[in-house]
Every structure is written in structure tokens, then in C-alpha cells.
Design brief:
CATH class of the largest domain: Alpha Beta
Bound molecules: flavin mononucleotide
Structural class: alpha/beta
Number of domains: 2
Radius of gyration: 25 Å
CATH architecture of the largest domain: 3-Layer(aba) Sandwich
Length: about 400
């Protein structure tokens, strides 16, 4: 929880998306952040500051003269200034160095504090050249940008400019607080479970949800890596997936076998969290097999061990992090797999503890020197950070 204990100054400016800042406020509080709020005069026309006051918050309005020196004290108190939604007007004022509202004044006094802008406006306004130039200028001054989404707008237009989901904004804030320890590194992640089809509707698979792999991919993005996710049958995402990663969808062992080696050659770190089927059907039918025709003694063939094959083409500087699921002799079996597949690390999910498909996980990390570290039950999102920290070490 990177936002736990952080002081966020939430500045709300006059966009039709203002009402969404209430949900954002709630999510910040859930994440353990302390939140102070400024509502601009225009924003106050869209939502009442009383909403936040009724949650027990002190809300500052745009009149800088009403709370003398609030701009200095608020910027000193904040660990991060979040302008969400950030209006066309306020963004352009900030770039011009205008400080005629409490929000622009606070920013003017917050030289060393991280600042995140979440623009939300009509697509034509967002495409406006003056705004674009000014956003680029603000980026040069180390403002972070949580890009708006593309979709239907309140005005009926379709395009880029929608206020993003709170999850995307929280992700951006967490990224700001992370050291970019994987900057310049290419990280390849596999997540989910393969499906081996018997016919177009029936398949052999396993219960892996993809949550561990997605958590690792998200975390690698936060640490500044160039991330490529191979998503296996994660059609309705089981959790938030950040859009700043390349994603390719695969279904079967064969799809993965065709995709993985080419991508592996270009990566620095492979995190193989997907659960790949050990077997496929010897014969597959292109038509749905009729109930009476189904041979109950279907024959299986063993799939090649992809990780073992990749270890054979691995370059000295590349790192391979494998994952295994074990119910018994967990460490012994994990160690055997690490050696057989020549991995740098293996994390053994203790699946006897009901972790498959859950938000939490627990297990053991073994490195190639044989060092074992136990990770107690915790959120997969938190475990992901700790596992990546082991590689970075
Ligand atoms: C109905 C209405 C909707 C608006 N929606 C937006 C919007 O979504 N995004 C935006 O940047 N400006 C929008 N504006 C314009 C801003 O509210 C206006 O530029 C205002 O001066 C912004 O002031 P502020 O930046 O100090 O909050 C809207 C104005 C009106 C009247």
C-alpha cells in the first residue's frame, strides 16, 4: 500500500466529471491516504463541497483571501498534489505560471512536490493544440499525467477526454512514489491458464486466474519497466490491468509455444506466472463432438516443458523467474523444478492453502543459490512488489 500515510491534496476543478472525484476521494481514503481538498469556484457549481464536509473533511474553496497563507501551508503539508479533474482552464493557467486561484497558487508554491494532473474535457478541447503544448511543457516541469480515457462523453461526443477510473488514477499515484528500479528493462510476464481444446467447446485447463501474473506486470510498470504481458484466457479481467503495457492474448499451449521464444529473446526478465498445461489431447475435433460420440478414453500427450527449453537459449544477463504450484513436499519439489529447468528463481505457491484464484497468496521463494525465503499469506498485489524487489537486489 504505497499511499498509506501519504498526504494527498485533492484539487477539483470545473469539469463535468467533478462528481467522479467523490469516488476518487473514497478510494484514496481506503488506500490509507490522508486527504485535504480544494474545490475551485467552477467545480463548486458542479458538486457541493458539503459532500466532503459531511465525511468530516475540511474543504478549501477557491478564495485564497478567505484562508490567509493556506496556499503555503497546504503545499507544505502535501506529499502529492492531485488535480482531478484538471480543467482546460487550470492546465493552461499552470503552464503560463498564472496563480489567481487557491489551486494555481498552491501549485506555484509547491516546487519540490510531485504533481499529478488528470485532464477531463470534451475530445476537441483535449485535442486543442494550446492544451497539448502546455501539457508537454508541464511534463518538462515534472508534472505527471494520468491520461484520460477514450469513450462516450457527457456532451454526446465520442473520443479522448473521459475522466479515468479511480483505479487508474491510484495506480498513477502509486507509480509516482516508486523508485524506477526497472527503468530501461524489458519484462515479459505470462499470466492465466492455457486451455487444451478437445473440440471447439470442451477443453482441459486449470484454476489459475492470472491475478499473480497481472500483479507482477502492474508492479513492473510502476517500477518503470517496459512490460509485455502474455494473457492466457483472461477474457474478463479478474483485476485492474494498467494500460501502459503491451498485451497479447493466447489460448493454448501451442499459442504460447509460438509466441514465447520470440518475445523471450528481447526481454531482460521473464516472469512465468501462467499455469501451462502439462498435457494436450492427442486428437482434436474441429466440430463439436456429439454426446453419444464422445470417446471417454481420450488420449493425452505430454507437452514440452517451455521453461526448460527457454533456459537452453537464455543469455547470461537474462533472468528467468518460474512459478510452481505444489500441495506437498513444497520446498523439495520446488527445488527440483528450479534445478531441472535451470531457473534463477522459483516461487512455489502453496496451493494446499486455498490460494488459487484468490486475491491472496503464500509460498516460498528459492533462488539458484538455494536460498529459501518464506512469504506468509498476503495480497498478490503486495507479494508482487516483494518478489520483484528480490530480483532487483
Ligand atoms: C456545463 C459545463 C461543463 C464544463 N465541462 C468542462 C469539462 O469537462 N472540462 C473542462 O476542462 N472544462 C469544462 N467546463 C469549463 C470550465 O468549467 C471553465 O473553463 C472554468 O472556468 C474552469 O475553472 P477552474 O479551472 O478554475 O475550475 C465546463 C463548463 C460548463 C458550463
Amino acid at each position: 500500500m504505497t499511499l498509506k500515510g501519504k498526504n494527498i491534496l485533492l484539487c477539483i476543478t470545473g469539469s463535468i466529471a467533478c462528481y467522479k472525484s467523490v469516488d476518487l476521494y473514497r478510494r484514496l481514503k481506503e488506500a490509507g491516504a490522508g486527504v485535504k481538498i480544494i474545490v475551485s469556484s467552477s467545480a463548486g457549481r458542479f458538486i457541493s463541497p458539503y459532500i466532503f464536509e459531511s465525511f468530516g473533511e475540511e474543504v478549501f474553496t477557491d478564495d485564497a483571501f478567505k484562508s490567509p497563507l493556506a496556499h503555503v501551508s497546504l503545499s507544505k503539508h502535501a506529499d502529492l498534489i492531485l488535480i482531478a479533474p484538471a480543467s482546460f482552464n487550470t492546465i493552461n493557467k499552470l503552464a503560463a505560471g498564472i496563480a489567481d486561484t487557491l489551486i494555481t497558487l498552491v501549485v506555484s508554491a509547491s516546487q519540490d512536490k510531485p504533481k499529478v494532473l488528470v485532464p477531463a474535457m470534451n475530445p476537441n478541447m483535449y485535442a486543442n493544440g494550446i492544451l497539448r503544448d502546455n501539457l508537454n511543457k508541464l511534463k518538462e516541469y515534472n508534472f505527471h499525467l494520468a491520461s484520460p480515457e477514450t469513450g462516450n462523453m457527457a456532451c454526446g461526443d465520442f473520443g479522448e477526454g473521459r475522466f479515468p477510473d479511480a483505479e487508474g488514477i491510484i495506480f498513477e499515484l502509486e507509480s509516482v512514489f516508486k523508485e524506477k528500479t526497472l527503468k530501461g528493462k524489458r519484462v515479459l510476464v505470462t499470466a492465466g491458464a492455457t486451455r487444451e481444446y478437445l473440440d471447439p467447446v470442451r477443453f482441459l485447463s486449470n484454476a489459475s486466474s492470472g491475478k499473480m501474473g497481472i500483479s507482477l506486470a502492474n508492479e513492473a510498470v510502476k517500477l518503470g519497466a517496459d512490460v509485455f504481458l502474455i494473457a492466457l484466457n483472461i477474457d474478463a479481467p479478474c483485476q485492474y490491468i494498467n494500460k501502459n503495457m503491451r498485451i497479447i492474448k493466447c489460448k493454448s499451449f501451442t499459442d504460447l509455444k509460438d509466441t514465447l521464444p520470440g518475445e523471450f529473446k528481447q526481454c531482460d526478465i521473464l516472469l512465468m506466472a501462467a499455469a501451462v498445461s502439462d498435457y494436450s489431447f492427442k486428437e482434436k475435433s474441429s466440430n463439436k463432438i456429439k454426446k453419444g460420440d464422445l470417446n471417454l478414453n481420450v488420449e493425452l500427450v505430454q507437452n514440452e516443458d517451455l521453461l526448460k527449453a527457454l533456459s537452453g537459449i537464455k543469455k547470461e544477463e537474462q533472468r528467468i523467474f518460474g512459478f510452481a504450484a505444489e500441495t506437498d513436499s513444497v520446498i523439495e519439489n520446488g527445488r527440483k523444478k528450479l534445478m531441472e529447468k535451470s531457473l534463477d528463481y522459483i516461487f512455489i505457491n502453496d496451493v494446499s492453502k486455498n490460494v488459487i484464484g484468490e486475491d491472496e497468496n503464500e509460498g516460498f521463494l528459492i533462488n539458484k543459490e538455494g536460498k529459501i525465503k518464506r512469504f506468509g499469506r498476503q495480497l498478490k498485489t503486495e507479494l508482487a512488489g516483494k518478489l520483484l524487489a528480490e530480483i532487483i537486489k
